[in-house]
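Progress against Task 2.4 (sequence-to-structure conversion) is shown through the following example record, which the project officer requested during the mid-term review.
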Amino acid sequence: MTDPGEAPRPAGDGPMSVSIVVPALDAEATIGDMLAGLASQAGVSCRREVIVVDGGSRDATADVVARFGVRLLVEPKRGPAAARNLGLREASGEIICHLDADTVPTRGWLREMLVPFSDPDVALVGGKTVSFPPETPAQRYMASSGRLDAVDYVRRPLFPFVPSRNMAVRREAALAIGGWADDLITAEDVDFCHRLLAAYPGPIVYRESAVLLHRNRATDDGLRKQAWGYGEGVAHLYERYPGETTWHWTDAGKVVGLLCGRAARAAVLETGARLRLTSSNAAELARYHWLWSWAFWRGFYSYRRTRAYR
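Structure tokens generated for the chain above:
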């Protein structure tokens, strides 16, 4: 990688080695499919290794991982950031690829994630994440919400980032910024990318052809828990970067207005669906948008009040 003021160097032949680091917690139901997908990657000639970091699973995650002959490490500290840090320290690859234990990579995922690194100025790459075909209302909501894929996140003017479920980064760059902030339980990828881009201000490369399939949470309770955790993480970022983020009492008023508006919309569309004036799909989407928003902002204010994750 070059300094911002230097002329770009000519592209090379790409990385010679890659380490795929996967944080896992109670993932016995999904991690086998993910590891099988990694084992079937096509068109990758560089040296590669897979490292699963178990965050203290109480199920048979370790037994499933053992069937695939990959490295299994144990990190007792809570959170995916701590797991990724252990993987980062133990990895030998020039490039670290991250995906989650509830995903399945398509056969060309790894090849496509590595292509941009032929440019030595590229430090961070995000792939395209799509949902498995949804079966429940909670899954339908997440599939339609746009919260999975990196395409919009990498273009944000404030805190652009790549979701860690589908990310690749140069190991030397990750080490140079001190790795992941393991006091963050969620939004750790936002913080990681923010610090990385401050040190290596090149563009984030979005690789649409690096497709990863993601299993969304199937139940309402699972969706609430996810939204609550995201809210906690955002609140922690406000605390962590007070010079770049601001929160005033007027913002609280805006949140109240937003929640009231979404609750009203959900109620109106639900009534319309019962009277067959609006579609049931629109009513369901509005109802789950309210559910997500209510849980998110409760998590946000819970963290601001207690300075602790639930």
